[in-house]
Amino acid sequence: xxxxxLKRAAPWTKPAALAVATLLLALTSTxxxxxxVDPFDxxxxxxxxxxxxxxxxxxxxxxxxxxxxxxxxxxxxxxxxxxxxxxxxxNPCDTATHDAKLGTLTLQTGFEAGxxxxxxDDVAAVVSTPGPTYSLYALRGxxxxxxxxxxxxxxxxxxxxxxxxxxxxADDRAGAAMVFPNGYLAHDGKxxxxxxTTSASxxxxxxxxxxxxxxxxxxxxxxxxxxxxxxxxxNATTAFLVNxxxxxxxxxxxxxYALATSGQDFTTSKLANFPTGAGGSGYTAVxxxxxxxxxxxxxxxxxxxxxxxxxxxxxxxxxxxxxxxxQPKIEAGSNFNAVSAFGEGVVLxxxxxxxxxxxxxxxxxxxxxxxxxxxxxxxxxxxxxxxVLTYDATQCTSVELMAPLGSDVLVGLRDRNGxxxxxxxxxx
Length: 428
Hints:
- The protein has 428 residues and is mainly beta.
- It has 7 helices and 31 strands.
- The model is unreliable at 1-33 and 69-88 (pLDDT under 50).
């Protein structure tokens, strides 16, 4: 496997994929003391550089340097994925028409754009409480400084709130290993969950479980190669579903694990086994009808399957994992780099990774309806794909995160108008 093959997975799949391919370290000449192969590693691990600067990778270490301004009469450089198509110093994003909410994205029939709110640059993920009043929480910062914060109530967000809890444990903050926060945030009605992995052997990590009502009961749960997670809450069952290679005392290689949070003493188990040929972890999302979408990386692209809630409940109660390959597969029609619940279904940010720059070139955000129970209690019916937002050729506006807000979805956008969250609803 080449470095380029690994990067064509979502940027944050790197630590998880490496857990099942340690030989890659030797092949790419990167090790526990290295930070990068190229500037894209730096941006994927550390986020956007300060304004007016760009990431560089020298001697396998990330740093920033001022962006050199083009001299009159020369060709200006471009930022991959944002200013592609620049010719002779002309940036098409300077002249492209930007909608105040959606930028250069186009909203498709059947969907509406609701209210929007400014989003700070250091927010990597958001999650909301159940409505009708939505309190938002955020994962902010990078590396060992990643932490959980309250953002107040949607859409009147307050960004100057104090830190709630460190995502990274004290031992790992003090350790020598590099830390990779994995860019997800989940809420089970009582707890927040956010995870990270490290560059130590075996890519160990933890999930920070923050008790909103009783912060003193917050804790860390070991979780090697954890990549994504979401909360499954149905009847008396409450659990975080974690895509990784182990969780607490539960192990068994790559798959999906469960952290049951209903009782005071949390328990862990393996929930689902990946299909043969899966080479890395993937995405996790739970729709409002409790249909669970679980994924992995295989055949050069991300894959996801839809699982009825009864199958998840049985695995949680029995402690016996089910085979994900036996559940209906969502045919995305392309690769994708983000997944979120959206009412009774999910949205995928579709596209693929450029073979030269490794930047993700998106085509659209698409909705996949998921219906439970029509053919029986063990059945999920997959609806036809519906495009929600489409990108233009300039890629001037990018989708940087997605998160459910009740039966709607928030999309985090970035372009020349800044960074913001926009609420997208199905037309009623």
